[in-house]
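Shipment paperwork, digital attachment
Item: protein structure file
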Amino acid sequence: MDNTKPINLITRPIQRFIRNEKSGGIVLGISVILALILANTALSEPYHHFLEHKLGFIFDGKTYFEYNLHHWINDGLMAVFFFVVGLELKREIVGGELSEPRKAILPIVAAIGGMLVPAMIYLGLNPSGAAHKGWGIPMATDIAFALGVLYLLGNKVPLSLKIFLTALAIVDDLGAVLVIALFYTSDISLMNLLIGLGFVLLMFIGNKMGVRSILFYAVIGIGGVWTAFLLSGVHATIAAVLAAFTIPADVKIKEQLFMDKIQKHLARFKELDSTDSMPTLSQEQLQVLEDIQKDTHAAMTPLQKLEHSMHPMVSFVIIPIFALANAGISLDMDLSSLTETNVALGVGLGLLLGKVVGVVGFTMLFVRLKIAALPDGMHFKNLLGLGFLAAIGFTMSLFVTELAFADEAFKTQAKIGIFVASIIGGIAGYVILNRNRN
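Attachment content:
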């Protein structure tokens, strides 16, 4: 490929940025700052007014699915985010860090501790009333931000820490999905829920029958599962995770057979007449390349192809849009309102103290009981650093905030708690890991 062509001079830096692990966290951070600027300048009114615009479908004079843009972002775009979370979780269970019980137990235990302790701290400070509903907010860890901070350290931290934090965050996301499903749903329409589960069953049957068409799963998943769950009252993001678990995770041809086929194709391609002097290929060469493409397609799992293709869209489009729509809080407020309830304090301490105590405490407990062993390169000090990184609860915590509270004052207080805890947690985690890297 000629890297000197003008278009390559533009696209290659962009591609390198997208492939960089910490780029998603950088874009997310920029989106948060932009949302705060929009909410605290003369653009505040048009910013909030824009999110209230309604979008729906009109058929035969009747309007269907008429929701404002804020609702579409949180129930529509975020369903795509949860779909990718579901794909990641299934991949980890099938062939990743969660596939071996002995290796999986420690991040699972750490994630459970990192959910239970923050919830208990919040409930201790907000035992009753409307504020009580926010107990799920400090339970979540933002995988994009947390891993972004970790990758800023580069080779200063062992690979085992990155794997541990990734597995912990994925289990944490599953916990958040279960909390949303069980505790943050509206009145349930049993008929629509059964219809949605019927579509999930249809996707599962398609998987077992060997259907590998992405279009098949997309049409049924969006047109059937997501739509039915949206109408059922169970949050539509749950539909996305269930749909993700039906995506095939097997290959048509195994690795050795794939390598044998590719070698034969390459040998055949080499035998054909060279057309280096011509800008086009012969029909025979085109046929060989098509065969290579077909076999390559068969050697990849639909699950991993989807995850790989959708990850940039989620990291660089969906999550930043979500942040723009949800992170815009006005800083021009009466600070005394923060002391009227313990929402901000419960969220802040739940994340900053609860995550650290839960993640580190539960992990060390299981290690001391000799139920599990710390991964190579991990010790108490860098585990403590990971505990602080787990306190970055930005995206998921904001999402649960929107589900937990109808009162805008409570939402604002919760967001302040999220911001303060996430910033302190990120900085503390970075400093600890940077100083104790040996």
